[in-house]
């Protein structure tokens, strides 16, 4: 992990600007239609009903902010993170990201199952602009952080790793990159307790360096520990943007009033 973050933006310029962002998904996957439905829908067997997973979402994030995304299941948190990472494109509006992004969004970290853990380290770091020599230099540090099980399986196909091992490797690689913005989606909950503590220490170190963090978590403890600002997503819209504690209070009040 580098301790120098190279910024492209001026200190007072937002590193992320999300403007009127929206994305529409098909509500269901393929399902069998009745003959009557097929005739009326022109013979297709796809359900074409759509919904807006996110709509009219706008906010800015400044350099070094630590933002927690809060919301119930299916309210659009992971989708928003993927749009900031650029792996999903908007149907409306835009997400402008002015710095490099290190995303740990899916459990697999976007790694390729058929490649070995070693090959995935070089591939992922290379895609984030690191030269082979730079990865060589950090390789041992990455593997050491990921732990002995990962070291023992370093030349095995990644798909043979347990989900815990996959997260260990994903977290080790992503947090070793030099990217100024880090996106973490619910992965801290997967590792065992000892590894979680290591992850917490590393997240704290990254924040001390002034990196920008987006954290999706259902753990109030994790959100309060790392984030000062909260965004509350409900029905694909931002219903609250403010102090993390206040956002969690609102979210908890809503949950209590629904139950
Ligand atoms: N690729 C996709 N195609 C169709 N629907 C999708 C797709 N990805 C997500 N969705 C739907 O979009 C909505 C938002 O999903 P998302 O994963 O962003 O929610 P979330 O807030 O992260 O939920 P959770 O807390 O359960 O992880 C859900 O209804 C989900 O089923």
TrEMBL record:
**Would you identify the family this protein belongs to, as annotated?**
Belongs to the ABC transporter superfamily.
Q: Which SUPFAM superfamilies does the UniProt entry name for this protein?
A: P-loop containing nucleoside triphosphate hydrolases (SSF52540)
Q: Which PANTHER family match?
A: TEICHOIC ACIDS EXPORT ATP-BINDING PROTEIN TAGH (PTHR46743)
Protein name in the entry? ABC transporter ATP-binding protein
Q: What is the organism field in this record?
A: Luteipulveratus flavus
Instruction: Return the InterPro entries for the record.
Output: AAA+_ATPase (IPR003593), ABC_transporter-like_ATP-bd (IPR003439), ABC_transporter-like_CS (IPR017871), ABC_transpr_TagH-like (IPR015860), Bact_Polysacc_Export_ATP-bd (IPR050683), P-loop_NTPase (IPR027417)
Q: Which CDD domains match?
A: ABC_KpsT_Wzt
Q: Which UniProt key words apply to this protein? A: ATP-binding, Nucleotide-binding, Transport
| Domain (ABC transporter) ranges | 33-259
For this UniProt entry, the molecular function terms from Gene Ontology, in alphabetical order, are:
ATP binding
At the top level, the lineage of the source is: Bacteria
Matching SMART domains: AAA
